[in-house]
Amino acid sequence: MNDFIPAAKPLIDDEERQAVDRVMRSGMITQGPEVAAFEREFAEHFGLGRCCVAVSSGTSGLHLGLLAAGVKPGDEVIVPSFTFAATANAVALTGAAPVFADIDPISFCLDPASVEAAITDRTVAVMPVHLYGHPADMSALGAIAERHRLLVFEDAAQAHGASLDGKPVGAFGSFAMFSLYPTKNMTSGEGGMVSVADDDLERLLRLYRNQGMQRPYENEVVGFNARMTDIHAAIGRVQLTKVNGWTTRRQDHAAFLTENLDGVTTPTVAAGAVHVFHQYTVRVADDRDGLAKALRDEYDIESGLFYPIPNHRLTPFQADIDLPETEAASRECLSLPVHPSISGADLERIVTAVNTLTKAGG
């Protein structure tokens, strides 16, 4: 009987538990010194060269970032359809409209040509997603934004430590959001971190996350309760000391899979890009769902379908548009385990299973 190989596994150890205990003993539980330290250390660790603001979740980070950047009802923000719904949800929550563009079939990130074709006189911004941990083409997207006088925001939920031409993701747009959900490359238990390009955005984000206040009872805007607790920040601070090693393991696992897998299309890393492999995503030309089921049933290997229903076909966003690369990816993409907890024997079993099943299916 094989041990089950999960698609993802949060890594929480004694150091994180001790950090939580330290906060609990301090009596300072909510947004306090641990949050402030985590914000500083996150920016420094990833070389962002800008301030960071900790929030309660990645989705709240996107929502508050959009509000702070001035996105309002009637505006349009161009986003990919091939991503988790939080990207489009955050735009819709401001009252603006998410406008869906197609993806590049290699990186799975926004296709610049499709973005440019989607621009209208109501477009105010473009928000690429650095999907699976691979950076979007920020050079081309930035040039389009400059030509059309658009803002650029980054959904870096899956891309802690990714970079393009030596520049870290999170340092390109007016703001960028990193998710700290348990399955991400590092976690705070729950939460998000928003990097901001200027003091005005930072101030507004801090207002919006805390009921519109910087000083008690002096509400300046209509705000939210989107604070991060010191408990979560303490976990995140410990995880910052480990994430580089975990990323290296992810990259090593990805290299092994790419070298040894047959019968599927393995991921490609663009020139100048550092991919942090939040997911190791292959394309399965025939019967992706059947392969996923057989991996689970016959080999005790869990895989992930990210994302089987494109955003533009979800009930809240029904849009009659032609996004052929998005549709193809939604049918073909399968994410195999790549997280730091898997062993060499696990990797061998994944390769054997995929190669055996795809050969049998062919």
TL;DR of this structure?
The protein has 362 residues and is α/β, with parallel strands linked by helices. It has 12 helices and 12 strands.
Walk me through this protein's architecture.
The chain is an alpha/beta fold. The chain has two domains: 14-240, Aspartate Aminotransferase, domain 2 (3-Layer(aba) Sandwich); 243-361, Aspartate Aminotransferase, domain 1. It is 39% helix and 13% strand. It is built from twelve helices and twelve strands. Strand 2 (76-80), helix 4 (86-93) and strand 3 form a beta-alpha-beta unit. The mean pLDDT is 97.
Q: How confident is the prediction overall: mean pLDDT?
A: 97
Judging from the principal axes of the Cα atoms, what is the shape? Answer: globular
Number of helices: 12
Cα radius of gyration in angstroms:
20 Å
Largest sheet: 7 strands, mixed
The total number of structural domains is 2
Order of secondary-structure elements: HHEHEHEHEHEEEEEHHHEEHHEH
* CATH fold-level assignment of the largest domain: Aspartate Aminotransferase, domain 2
Helix content: 25-40%
CATH superfamily of the largest domain: Type I PLP-dependent aspartate aminotransferase-like (Major domain)
Report the β-strand fraction as a percent range: 5-15%
Second CATH tier, the architecture of the largest domain: 3-Layer(aba) Sandwich
Secondary-structure content class: alpha/beta
Question: What distance separates the N and C termini?
Answer: 27 Å
Strand element count: 12
